[in-house]
Amino acid sequence: MPDIDETLRSTYANLRGAFEGDFDGKAASPDDETGGLDDEATLLPEEGAETVEETPEHGAAATTPEEGDEEHGADPDAAQTKPAVAFKPPWKKAALAEWEKLPALARAEIERRESDFHKGIEQYKAGAASAQEWDRTLQPFMATIKTFNVAPQVAVQELLKADHALRYSAPQNKVGFLLKIAGDYGIDLNTLANGIQQIAGAQVWEQQNPGDPRLQQLQNEIALLKQQQLQAQQQHVQAEASAVDQEIAAFAADPDHEHFPLLQKDMGILMQHGRAQSLDEAYEMAMRQNPQTYQVWLAQQQQGWDAQRKAKVAKAKQAGANNVRPNGRASVPTAAPTRTMEEDIEATARQLGLIN
Asked: Of 72, 102, 127, which residue constitutes the final position of a domain?
């Protein structure tokens, strides 16, 4: 029976060839007997160490009938079948084909190394997430930190040291530290002193001249009334704006106002300058002024004129039918002479002031 050391070395040498350069880009050479195995001790049990029994729980293959017959004399009918191996290494297909050929000890060791590798990655995930959050927090201030030519950790440490000194130092030390900070940040000490005096003077004056509580109550009531009035005005303005928006939306959705998107700007100008008093009036005026919609407006006017003419004719006929003389003849008033369509358009245009 071949020695286990020889079996491992031969198997890994074959695997290196199957990976086609995955092991540091070098194929196994005949002179390299170990096949790229860096440390034989990682795959072989140490001396005196307890040998792990090759059971299905440890990834070992079951004893084949032939091996059982030769070594233990077992009945071939009672031989165990080889269990399915759940673990599969993330190898290339060519190398994975050699996986089943590996001895059980080699497969168990490879599975252990893969498991340890992934466990190690999981340990670093929390640290990586914390580092990314740290970078995002410091990013807005990196330009300032770089001007001091220090690492971000040093800058944060100095800020925390300053906070600690201002919180926990003795009162006289806090004053001195504040003066140092003012100097470091270019704050004029005279201006700072004047500001402190003004604040201190106001506090002293308030202490010496306490306000009348009735006056304070009156001031609070006036402030409350102003606030309520302002809120009422804002609500009124919002309600008016909402009503206007709804009216404009309904006007724009009307199929008769299909050119509203094109004329909307012109309509707004007409209404702002008081030339139009309603949306309908502004829409019609804008249609007349816009070269793209003038012909459409003219055609609509012609349709209206035709409808009026037909209505007048129908009315005249109805009046003639109702006006019957005693002799049985209808008394029809003499109709005014009719004009051509061109004459009607010209007359209407003159009335609207479009032409002279």
From this structure: 127
